[in-house]
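Obj: model holo form, ligand = flavin-adenine dinucleotide.
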Amino acid sequence: STHNYDYDMVVIGGGSGGLAASKETANLGMKVAVCDFVTPTPKGTTWGLGGTCVNVGCIPKKLMHQSAILGGELKDSREYGWDTPETVTHDWGRMVEAIQNHIGSLNWGYRVALREKKVDYLNAYATFTDPHTIKTVDRRGKEKIITSDKFLVATGGRPRYPDIPGAKEHTITSDDIFSLPYAPGKTLLVGASYISLECAGFLAGLGYDTTVMVRSILLRGFDQQIAEKIGAYMEQHGVKFIRGAVPTSIEKIEEGTPGKLRVTAKTTDGEEVVDEYNTVVVAIGRDPCTSGIGLENAGVDLAKNGKVVVEKGEQSSVPHIYAIGDVMEGGLELTPVAIQAGRLLARRLYRKDSLQTDYVNVPTTVFTPLEYGCCGLSEEAAIDKYGEDDIEVYHSSYQPLEFTVAHRPENDCYAKLVCVKSENEKVVGFHILGPNAGEITQGFSIGLKLGATKADFDNLIGIHPTTAEIFTTLNITKRSGKDVSAQG
Ligand code: FAD
Ligand code: NA7
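Output (holo structure tokens):
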């Protein structure tokens, strides 16, 4: 019985996963509270309700990407007959203000939605004191003790800083950049994660002198052929890369906003590289928010990386404590994954549904200047799993029709299907590098979920003229070694 507790469910973290779970739980008639508290960044940046995606993730980054894309299209527009001036300027402050206004309206909308659904919202930091009790502390230091039958840990993650002199004092992260009140100027991005490359892409697109410092490879975990194509395209479009290097110290050499920093780095051959930048953004990975919240007081097992270890059904080592989203070990750090996990968990707990979140064939897109959409396995993961002989890769470069009149390059965009020969050429990897990759990948991903084969793709009739139609006519295998340049 749950009568002795204040709540049926307390959700810790009001981000993508926590909000979805708390609203669904309340919908099903349960008594729910959600605690959400944003610890300011070392620079003092903070934000409202909604978590990473809305405030410092997906939403502002896609909007800044759009701002950069528009700049490119302004150039194209001249070829299409518009008298767009040769030189147009961009106002960082106006862009930030417009984007932050939109985010503000989303923050407000979430608060209203919680109130309407009768979810108690506590703008306070939660810590477990025992397996059924949390202590919350608000901005003013006011404490509250709350008990609950069940808990959901959905605390997400925060950017990690390198352990080098000057990092925390002088660098910013993705938690700061989207609300940066001044133009960043000449910028160094440290790390080759998708977050680093996406930020580098829009900064260069907006006209800033942009450099990415890469320790080893681009986009670890993603298809490496495509990762290199992304890098090559970015390099042709103004992004500089320093390969095989890590920063060793960062000093402030000029005050002001943005001021000036001296970055010392070391290459793999032990060489020292020194340069000056106005802004340094570190994007070297994220740490799950599981330390110092008393999970040990509740007996919850954590993995070595700090994430919550779960069984099937997102259940932690303590049966009445669950974890979803970025803090869950073995999951995928994506907003729609956290939302689905939260919703389905609520339905299993309070509506006796049995549907589990399916973490396989989750489509995703990297919003670099040329967007990269994928679903399923990278070519190298497919080869690892099935063996090289059993994998057939069909591929082609292509040129979007829109690029022709704009005189954009012919062979930068690329499509690839990774198929398993012994399984009737089932498609296990879908990859597209080109404009609107996210929109295209979303549609095709249902084909992968339903087990589509190469023959199904061939049998599909294209929509002309689109870029997605390339997937209905792929007829060159990688094994053949034939040229895949776009034909006229
Ligand atoms: P979060 O959304 O991080 O929410 C956790 C919340 O809990 C936060 O508000 C936090 O402040 C709060 N909290 C933490 N500890 C406590 C505590 N003890 N008490 C109270 N509150 C607490 N995903 C995509 O799908 N597409 C994208 O394009 C995309 N782009 C991204 C770009 C960037 C720059 C970043 C950083 C991430 C991006 N992501 C993207 C990932 C996506 O944002 C996350 O996967 C998603 O937000 C995870 O949701 P969550 O509910 O697990 O946690
Ligand atoms: P990732 O994907 O782990 O990326 C971290 C990146 O930062 C990666 O390029 C690392 O290089 C680099 N890195 C890590 N430590 C350092 C230091 N100390 N110095 C320089 N560069 C460093 O992290 P994210 O959190 O951005 O992404 C999380 C998830 O999102 C990930 O699982 C993906 O599936 C999507 P490396 O390759 O290790 O040499």
